[in-house]
Amino acid sequence: MEDITLTVNGTDHELSVEPRTLLIHALRDEMGYTGPNVGCESSMCGACTVHIDGRAVKSCTELAVRAEDSEITTIEDLGDEGDLHPLQKSFQEEHGLQCGYCTPGMVMTAAEFLDEEPDPSREEIREALEGNLCRCTGYQNIVNAVESAAAEMSAAVEPATDGGAVPDDGGTAPDNGGVVPGDGSPVESGGD
């Protein structure tokens, strides 16, 4: 057994694990973080995706002992029940889930993607999520959800005159006729 300390959602957890213990099992079985799900245990489905030092990682392929000295973030820390992350809200509003089993992994993968690419095309969203499987939906609503969250997140920051960015003042924006704030392109609706 190995004695390790894992930092999950800002909390240190001391535990003893077999050196071969996968991070997903340490999270779920040893620490009670049940947001990441065990799907395929072979990195094919993405249901177990968490962030390690800000990067989306399939926790079924990461040994718990290797995650020591890293900051691990699970879906439980992305938003609160009364204050959901824009991705969580958009998955709900755009019906981007059915059974919900894949949703934590989809959301965590999309969160890292939107941090890197705040104004993605629909094709870029599909490419970013290609390592995550959903056995219930046709992916259309998942892509819609990520696109909607990207628009909401970019609308929360408007350009400043000095080239930087300032947070939105929370005021209501005028009806923009379906134009995505920031890039001027029309919002797609309907099928692909």
Radius of gyration: 18 Å
Provide the spatial order of strands within the biggest beta sheet: 2-1-5-3-4
**How many DSSP H or I helices?**
5
- The assigned CATH architecture of the largest domain is Orthogonal Bundle
Order of helices and strands: EEHEEEHHHHEE
Tell me how many strands there are.
7
Which fold name is given in CATH as the topology of the largest domain? DNA polymerase, domain 1
Distance between the termini: 52 Å
The CATH superfamily of the largest domain turns out to be [2Fe-2S]-binding domain
- Strand portion: 15-25%
Please outline the major beta sheet. Answer: 5 strands, mixed
CATH class of the largest domain: Mainly Alpha
Helix content: 25-40%
Shape: globular
Number of domains in the coordinates? 2
Structural class: alpha+beta
Overall average pLDDT: 86
Query: Which residue ranges are poorly predicted, with pLDDT under 50 across at least 5 consecutive positions?
Result: 168-192
Tell me what the structure shows.
The chain is of the alpha+beta class. It has two domains: 76 residues, Roll (Ubiquitin-like (UB roll)); 82 residues, DNA polymerase, domain 1. The chain is built from five helices and seven strands; from the N terminus they run ββαβββααααββ. A five-stranded mixed beta sheet has the order 2-1-5-3-4, sandwiched between helices. A two-stranded antiparallel ribbon has the order 6-7. The longest helix is centred in the C-terminal third of the chain and has 16 residues. The chain is globular, with a radius of gyration of 18 Å. The C terminus is likely disordered.
